[in-house]
Amino acid sequence: MDCIRSNNYAQNVLTGARELQQINNQITSLQNQAQMLITKQELGELPFFVVTATRAVDSAYAAVAHPGAAYRI
Question: N or C terminus: which one in the chain shows less Cβ crowding within 10 Å?
């Protein structure tokens, strides 16, 4: 019985790790998209309000991806 529990626990840990990696990949993708939009604004291709919103979203995702980074000295 303990072997089965250990196996289930190991599978759950692996599943959680895979899901976390998928979330990290999505965050990276969104950050890349946000950076692309910021670059377009710098080239004058987007309205300012779009870039402002994009930067806010990028900051929010960065905070999720690296919690506590804002507090590093």
Answer: C
Torsion, CA 44, CA 50, CA 52, CA 54, rounded to 10 = -110
* Residue partners of 56: CB distance under 8 A and separation at least 6: none
Domain carrying residue 24: 2-71
Residue showing tokens 């690296």: 66
The residue assigned the tokens 């895979």 is 18
pTM over 0.70: no
pLDDT confidence of residue 72:
46
Residues 6+ apart with CB under 8 A from 51: 37, 38, 41
pLDDT single digits (tens) 7-42: 888 899 999 999 999 998 888 888 888 888 778 777
